[in-house]
Amino acid sequence: MATLVPTSEDTRIYECAVLLPYGLPQREEQELIKRIEGMFDEVGAKQIAKDVWGRRGISFPIKGTMEALVIIYHFDMDPSRVKEVDQQMRIEKNLLRHLIVKPPKGYQIVKYSELYEKWLKERETREETQSREREERLKEQVAKKAKRQVERTTVERKKTDAEAKPALEETELTEKLDKLISDDTLGL
Amino acid sequence: MLPPRTQTAQQSRRPDPRTKKCAFCAHKTKYIDYKDYPTLKPFTDYFGNIRKRYYSGVCLKHQKMLRLAMERARFLGMVAYRK
Q1: How many domains does chain A divide into?
Q2: Is residue A118 part of a domain?
Q3: B33 touches A at CB < 8 Å
Q4: Chain B residues with CB inside 8 Å of A60's CB?
């Protein structure tokens, strides 16, 4: 895509982002869009590009709605008349937000509506891979735990065997003692 | 006296945050767009704050651009002010 160059020295390129509430009746919505474009036409702005993002979720509620319709315009217009458009946009009742920005030198128009969809698809795959890795890690952990438990049980068995031996000796000892005690020759 | 560090402990340590390099400088970015959500997102933390330069490794020039882009994106509801 070509870089933006104003047509004459008196004009500049401006970028305008507009947030409309989603869920308006179609006729009202189109009227609103026409009115906004009309504001720019009155001032003598020339539309260069229009990027309709469509329905988008917002991170926080604006005027009670969590969804908005986003449109991004690029205009070639007189810098002294930007204020008028801004004032009119502020008065506009059904407009959620608007932002007029001067893009820097050598700015290229990028259609973010398409890029965003692409990114969404990529993100899904990324999340899938992450979840798979997590499951694998969990499986490894479970296997390790099972191994450890097996080792522990074997050690415990050995220990119990070792403890059992002195117990036998004790019985022998008691028998010997009994014999000694019961011996009559001692003369207790 | 502290016991000497074993090699396994050294390997599992986090990398030094000061040695990171600016990701924007690598791509030679001149302007960070407020509409570009995928690039803005990794520079915010869980609460929606912009990551500190110390942790993200972004240079001062690009951090200022990033802040401007983030403020614009927040105003338009693309990025949250606070989670």
Answers
A1: 1
A2: no
A3: yes
A4: 77, 80-81
Answer yes or no: do B31 and A119 touch at CB < 8 A.
Answer: no
Q: Where in the sequence is the domain holding A85, given as residue range(s)? A: 12-110
Q: Among A36, A55, A49, which residue's Cα sits nearest to residue A111? A: A49
Closest Cα in chain A, distance from residue B81 (Å):
8
Mean pLDDT of A165-181: 80
User: pTM for this one?
Assistant: 0.69
- Interval A108-129: pLDDT, tens: 888 888 888 888 888 888 888 8
Give the pLDDT confidence of B19-41 residue by residue, as tens digits.
888 889 998 989 999 998 888 98
Interface contact A59, partner B, CB < 8 A: yes
Q: Which residues of B touch A68 (CB under 8 A)?
A: 77
Q: Is residue A172 part of a domain?
A: no
DSSP letter assigned to residue A22 = T
A70 touches chain B (CB under 8 A): yes
In a domain, A168, yes or no: no
Residue A182 confidence (pLDDT): 79
Q: Can you tell me the ipTM of this complex?
A: 0.73
Q: Do the Cβ atoms of A97 and B81 come within 8 Å?
A: no
Domains and CATH numbers, chain B: 19-75 (4.10.640.10)
Residue A52, SS3 per DSSP: strand
CATH of the domain at A72: 3.30.70.60
Using N-to-C axis directions, what is the helix angle for A26-43 and A82-91, rounded to 10°? 160
- Give exposure, A18-39, as e/b (b: 16+ Cβ within 10 Å): bbbbbeeeeeebeebbeebbeb
